[in-house]
Amino acid sequence: MARYADRLLADGERVVLRVRQHWLAPLVDGKIAVAIFLASIVLLVLISNLQPGDVRNVLGYLPLILLVLSLLWLFQVFWSWYSEDYLVTNRRVLKVEGIVRKRSADSSLEKINDAVLSQGIVGRLLGFGDLEIMTAAEESVDRYAMLAGAQQFKKTMLDEKHQLEQEYMRIPAPPLRVASDPAAAPAAAVPAQPRGMSADEITKALGDLADLRDRGAVSPDDYEAKKNDLLGRL
User: pTM for the full model?
Assistant: First the structure.
């Protein structure tokens, strides 16, 4: 059965890496429920050692109630943890959280400038960390707390970003002009006409090229050449 995050993928978008928070995360989020669960177990043991009577009968219900409530609370915390998805696709980074009410947030790879990874001693030993995604303006756009396999997540995200930029760089150059005299240019030398593009596709491609130019990944001359090529496909 497809997960909720899979239904958010666009045409041609594929999942490269899928993770969630480390298994310790629900224990940290539900630490109060864990404390209540342990306290109820201790109370049950203590009350079971009391002499039979009204006191034991009355107090015997309290730890049972606390035990049931803490188990329900822990079930909700672990279900929420299981329902989350942190994805790296060939286009973006996507985070989906929530059980009934879903919340999704994504960051386009071309807009990501870097990612700050924080790992303590326990995180390095158990393989989790806090990942903060940065934009080109050095502003934090999202934070992934206690992310399992945080190092691999960061590496995969930056690798896919680099590959996406290389694909933009491979946009075909403008076709060569054909000489007016057919004899001056062999028919085999005439390149195939580039495929037409919709206005939305050209607008998105121009925005991506402008972002690459602003970051210095594309020279102004290359930007102008590819812009003219794209506008010629309208």
Answer: 0.65
